[in-house]
């Protein structure tokens, strides 16, 4: 479904991504982790087609690929109510019956503890955590074949984060759609993915099934991230 071959990206001769080779299959849940500056978000932008590689190839076999970005205030039009923003997304990206979308929206609101009354508010009239949940809902209700989540839990408290984690896993189980999680938070990523890719300074340094996270042969940088996160993997 996703095939990147010898992919490089430069800005003013500065290498942001270096010789990325990556294959992701339909239905995979993949975490791409690393510290700030590792190249994670740049990779997401390349996958979305926002920017083009300097060299190498990018092949994606999917009709719809949508993001959930980190900063919800930047993702919503402040001249629109939240409902109007959701309606706009449906007009641009969905060919499904409106009744199906409305039913899906209702289920997602219930799953994320959001009241329908909030739909009539403007983005700056709800909390950051509520707006991020609407940000997540906006993409999930369209059921894209590939979903790219960029630091989506940064505005969520622990309880809501757990609910979002369960919702995303259920979404994947129901649809077998591909999901990529861009994050520095190994603790969250390890709860929702089957495969973990570790990036450092624009390169992939580790790539393994989630169940092998604590193997002794993990890259030194992966081990350092583990020590920083102090996480426990849920089997």
Please describe the topology of this protein.
Layout: E1 2-11, E2 14-24, E3 29-33, H1 40-48, E4 55-60, E5 65-68, H2 72-75, H3 82-93, H4 98-111, H5 128-140, E6 146-150, H6 158-175, E7 178-183, H7 186-192, E8 195-200, E9 203-209, H8 220-229
Parallel strand pairs: 3-7, 3-8, 5-6, 6-7
Antiparallel strand pairs: 1-2, 1-4, 8-9
Radius of gyration using CA atoms only:
18 Å
Name given to the CATH architecture of the domain at 1-63 and 180-230: 3-Layer(aba) Sandwich
Q: Which strand order does the major sheet show? A: 5-6-7-3-8-9
Share in β-strands: 25-35%
Notes on the structure:
The protein has 8 helices and 9 strands. The chain has helices at 40-48, 72-75, 82-93, 98-111, 128-140, 158-175, 186-192, 220-229; strands at residues 2-11, 14-24, 29-33, 55-60, 65-68, 146-150, 178-183, 195-200, 203-209. 37% of the residues lie in helices and 26% in strands. The strands form 2 sheets. The chain has a 6-stranded mixed β-sheet, sandwiched between helices. A 3-stranded antiparallel β-sheet has the order 2-1-4, with helices on one face. The protein is α/β, with parallel strands linked by helices. It has a domain at 1-63 and 180-230: P-loop containing nucleotide triphosphate hydrolases (Rossmann fold, 3-Layer(aba) Sandwich), CATH 3.40.50.300. Helix 6 links the parallel strand 6 (146-150) and strand 7 (178-183). The radius of gyration is 18 Å and the shape is globular.
